[in-house]
Design a protein that fits this description.
Helices cover 21% and strands 35% of the residues. It is built from 8 helices and 21 strands.
Length: 390
Amino acid sequence: MQSIARNCAFTPNNPEKIKLSSMLKFLLNRGLMLTALAFVLLTPLGLYAQSKVVSGTVKSGPNEFVPGASVMEKGTSNGTVTDVDGKFSINVKENAVLVISFIGMAPKEIAVANQTTLDITLDADITQLSEVVVIGYGEVERKDLTTSVSSINSKQLKDIPINSAAQALSGRLAGVQVTTSEGSPNAQVQIRVRGGGSITQDNTPLYVVDGVQVENALSVLSPQDIESIDVLKDASATAIYGARGANGVVIIVTKGGRKMKPLVSYNGLVGFRQLANKLEVMNPYDFVMYQYERSRGNTAAENTFRDSYGNFSDLELYKGVPNVDWQEESFGRTAVMQTHNVSVAGGTTGTQYNVSVSSNKEEGIQIGSDFDRKLVNVRLDQKITGFLKA
């Protein structure tokens, strides 16, 4: 022990031992400083960077999960995506805000707060939807359309003051001939899409309303209930309907409900019709004198005139005959027309509805051609499962 003590003694006579002792003290002091620095740096992380695991599901409706939806912690690159069942799990800060997004749906921000399980429902973003055209049993974006199709939508129909949907098409569909058989308010309207030739002995096009074939559909639908009308003219587009589509196909989509609170709408118009141009007619005396002058020089015509109007000496009697303008009597009235339409639309994610009641009343310009029609249109869309809809 005394020998060891003498060898380890720090004496001025042992310079190497003094040097080694100074180095040990330096390293010891440096180690304490690094330890203290590490403790200072790690302490805030342990106090302020607390995190937790948040899990949940992303849906677009009841029992409709959204796979592949993006779940991101706002302001960071920390994120994940949902699995095939719409489920996700992510490690975030206590006060984090999650941003959930998916193509075609409006993004949503959710504050985590003290929640650990989230049930998120995304709504469709209608601002991202493109205008589509119904082609047979499917739809295609208008920019990708290659077949010959004429279309008219509800925005164009609402500004037309008429009671018949068929009359609304007149002059508004390129390549489609719309002809009214007569001038009465309830006159049948003939629509010709592909000319007068037909393999079915009938030139009437096929009408498809919301996927259902309906005969003379434009006569039983109010213009206020129509969302869009697409007329298929190409053989390639009409071929899926077989021989029935040989004269063209008129596809009508009626207005349906949406996911919203019940919305009551009213659409009405009041107007009048008059005969645009009346022919100038003679009074009875002028008419008989004209017939007298044209019959002169022809024995047969003179005899016919005498049998119808009498001798020349009797013509003065016609000056006292009242003048009756039969144009005025038959077509001279001011015919008042009015339309009133009340609709209620709304629905939930699984059920949408649109109920519409229309009253179309018009006094025809011709006496006895009045038109009065009441229409009730009900559209109910029910989502039964994720892939079945009625």
